[in-house]
Specification:
The protein has helices at residues 15-24, 41-50, 68-75, 87-97, 135-143, 158-164, 173-181, 222-234, 240-247, 254-261, 275-285; strands at residues 37-38, 58-62, 79-84, 103-107, 125-129, 151-157, 182-190, 195-196, 203-210. It is built from eleven helices and nine strands.
Amino acid sequence: MSDPLAAARLAPPTPGQLRKLMAAERLRPRRSLSQNFLTDPAALDAIVEAAELHRGDRVVEIGPGLGVLTRRLLAAGASVLAVELDARLAAWLRRELAAVPGFELLEADALLIHPRECFPGEPFKLVANIPYHITSPLLHAFLEGERPPELTVLLVQREVAERVASPPGGMSYLSVFVQNVADAEVAAHVPAAAFEPAPKVDSAVLRLRSRRDPPIPAGDARDPFYRIVQAGFRQRRKQLHNGLGRELPLPGGALDEALGACEIDPARRPQTLSVDEWACLARRLTPLLGDDRRGRRLESA
């Protein structure tokens, strides 16, 4: 077999080449798994550049598919743990890349693994072209806890990427959750035509750099923080004083006192608050919250 990392094999296939390959291997994109295969070299370059790869990096890749991105990660000298749910594609990857040093394949659902199982005791990056429908749960699974990736680079739906990286004014629950633990930015935009089959929406490369000192660190303070932010966004069209006052079981006057201490105008709306402002509110309100646990982690924004 030819070198799987030869220069000629590091470019993605054209749409025509991809269709021929899929037909020869009796493969078909599975809509249920949001399988859209990258065929644009510029988009692939944008992901690799955003990942800031160095020889010896440890990288978790979710949904490697036919290994287009995997080859580039390995060629850069990274060790790659590729997590693939589709048994047919996993079999293809084993044939193609099993002999490459640094390549490991885990045939599993990425949402059922824990970051502590990935390169135990070592820092790692999360770099992937992920199925759109798992974006929010995947971010929760990998960014929560005491050992998030040091750098996360994901090719996701453009609207979601821009929402995650939004400044105050366009914030959502997902924005607050992510920006509490990472500095977020949109590194590149990718048109729908960069995929085969082409999705109905454009994509973007989202880069998340882990924060060393999150405003709300991992531990017992996180759950009430999420609860307070969720309460705010359940009433996103209302002013904070009215929305949070309606959603949270607080003693009389406590909310006004907390808003004043954090220098937050009670007439503002949830989407205008920064992560630091939400954190300030959470630190003041958490000791006053009752035992009502009806709040749930939102999976979309």
